[in-house]
Structures are given as C-alpha cells and as structure tokens.
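so im writing up the methods section and need the YVTN family beta-propeller protein record in one place, dumping it here so i stop losing it
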Amino acid sequence: MKQLKQFAFIALFLGTSIFQGCKKDDRPEAEPELPQAERKGIYVLCEGLFNANNTSLSYFNYEDRSLITDKFASVNGRGLGDTGNDMKIYGSKMYIVVNVSSTLEIVNPHTGASIKKLDLKQNNVGRQPRYITFNSNKGYISNFDGTVAVLDTASMEIEQYIKVGRNPEQMAIANGKLYVANSGGLDYPNYGNTVSVIDLKTLQETKKITVGENPRGVVADQYGDVYVLSTGNYADVKSSMTTIDSKTDQVKTAVNFSGGSMVISGDYGYIPASGGKLKVFNVKTEQLEKENFITDNTKITSPYGLAVDELTGEVFVTDAKNYTTGGEVFCFDKEGKKKYSITVGINPNNVVFINK
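--- predicted struct ---
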C-alpha cells in the first residue's frame, strides 16, 4: 500500500534539494526509436486506488509497439488485488508486492501468467508488505507489521520473518548486509528514525542506525555507501539524506534533502523534485550534477516512480497526474530528451524490463 503517497506525495517534493560533500574514487504519441539491445518490452505496475482493488499491470511490447493496459487480468482472468506497491524481476520470475491485499504474486514475465500467489498474513491479519529485494536466491520483503520476510526463490516459500523496526519501507544490500528503513510512517506524528542492519549470513538484525525522521528510501551505490532518504514530519522537521558507510556502519554525512526516493545507475542517482524536475546526483563525487535531467521542457505533473534501463541508458519516469485517473510513463534518452510516452493505469509506480 502506498497510503502515505496518496496524501503526502505532493508535500514531499515542495522543498529544494540540497547536496554537499565530496567523494570516492497507451500507445506512443509518436513512433519511438526503440532500443537495439535484447529488450522485448516493459511492464508497468499501476497501484490503483487505496481500497479500490484495482491494481493493474500494463505491458508495452517493443517489437510491435502494442500496449496491453492490464496484462495480468487478461492472462489470468482475475486482478492483482489492492494497491500494488513494488515489482522486480529476479532470475526467471517477476515478483509483485500487493500491499493492502497482503500478497506476493509470482509471475512468468514472458507470458504474464501467475505461477504462485503467497499470502503474507499472521493469524489471518495482513502484514501489509511494501518492498522486495533479492540476494543469493533469497527474496527479502519488508512488511508494515515490523518484519522482513525471507523468501526462498526456488521453493517459493517464506522461510522466516525477521523482526525490525516500525513500518519498514525500502531496503538495500551492501557488504553482505540488508539495510531496512524503519519509517514509523503509520504512527503520525511519532515517526521512526532508524535503519535496521541485518546480517545476511545469520539473518539476524545486528544493530539500528539513527538517521533522519521518517526514513523511507534506501539505495546503495557501487562504492559501498548506503543513502537513506527521510521525509521528516511535513512540518518543522525537514526531509534529509543520510549517507552510511557500509564497511563501518557509521554515518558519513547528513544533509537537508527534499525527496523520498532515488534510483542509482552507475555513478548517477536520479531524484524526483518539485516542478516535475528530475535531479541528477553524482554518487562518486557526492555532488549535485544537474538540477534537471530533462532537457527538452517535457512537463511531468506528479513524478511517481523511476527506472533506468542499464542496457540503453534510457530513463523512465512515471506520472501519476491527479492520482485518481490514468497515469503516463515517459521514456527519455541519455541526453534527457523525450523519446515517447504511453498511457497506463492509475498511479503507475514501477517499470521493469523484459528481455527477449
């Protein structure tokens, strides 16, 4: 579920990003110039409306430029459920986290067919899963009940639950450890301010690191740093970014920063910002490199999700528009110029890439 995004997303990006430091060493509007790499197409997860049970999965086929606005329903004869929150491909399977329904849908990405659906509940009470990440044939799913589920990707069974902090959100893996943002996001105004560190060998929480208030976004770079994006309390406590050295688990920097998510590709982190901009942060130099990645004046109303195609360098930005009707997905080339856009379902939040 993205309840918090439904009422707080606009406020989240009203500030101005501040970075300091130094560092380590429907159908396209026009016929797009499609990638020559081995991509078959993209899936777009559209979370729908909270408690409306209308999550959808759009599929855009690069080969014939066809668009199916709800691939999952057309293939399986049923919907995904209520409030799809995260989606990733690992190995030969695609994993879709459905928050309000408290399910994990495991899908064949080439056909859209469901392989298995797991209920993430305790005593028939939903755990409210949020995000999923993977390492060494294990999946890790954060749940708003204060746990991280450990999934065996071969057996497709949950092996155990690890207790962390309140209302965990995004996670990142670095140096054999899983970093989990404990947002406390359902306890307004008593938000959390820690990141749990889980040893992936023992599957035990080893410590909690203090960060900014209401941490939600967590991402790791190739140099061993973990970035934690905290949204504050939307009043007197401002949003911030904390950088953790994963080798020592010590906080390196903590600066004011307006944003709730960052996607890193190579040395560059892409951050949605106010005014529909997409800031570019260089994780190697730890400097803000561009105020806006978009160079052709393309207007994005409500940036909601980001993805970067590592094969082509294309940057995909999802636009939730007014959060109640159909959204749009924009594809930009490496120079920040729009290539095409497609119209999809309500509140698109994730894009994944399908190989041939």
